[in-house]
Amino acid sequence: MFKVESIIFLAALNMLIAVGAGAFGAHGLKSVLSADMLAIWQTAVQYQMVHALGLLGLSLLQAQWNERLLRYAAWTMLSGIFIFSGSLYALALSGLRILGAITPVGGVAFLLSWAMLAWCAYRRQH
């Protein structure tokens, strides 16, 4: 699975991509995309950024707790970023509305990853 250093690397890489995508959307795509598509692009950026920070948090907790479930949560969160934000980036650039049907799969991955973190914390309390 992932080592802590790998999760940190992937979190930082996703933040790098999200910041770049945000700047690209604000400056490079502003005159190219419609307001609706630009809003979709910004949603992709926002969710990628938030979940990249989530990955970073998971790596810090993994370093302390050494829980296998946290590694699964990181993998699931990374998958969510790829599916959720990736499908929205592709939708915004292509205009193919069918890509929006993939996005909820990424949202479910986000929910599962946060649920795994909650379960780990709950188990550690009891």
From TrEMBL:
Entry keyword set: Membrane, Transmembrane, Transmembrane helix
Classification via InterPro entries: DUF423
Annotated compartments: Membrane
Highest taxon in the source lineage: Bacteria
Record's bilayer topology term: Multi-pass membrane protein
Residues annotated as transmembrane: 7-26, 38-60, 72-92, 98-122
Family classification: Belongs to the UPF0382 family.
Name listed for the protein in its UniProt record: DUF423 domain-containing protein
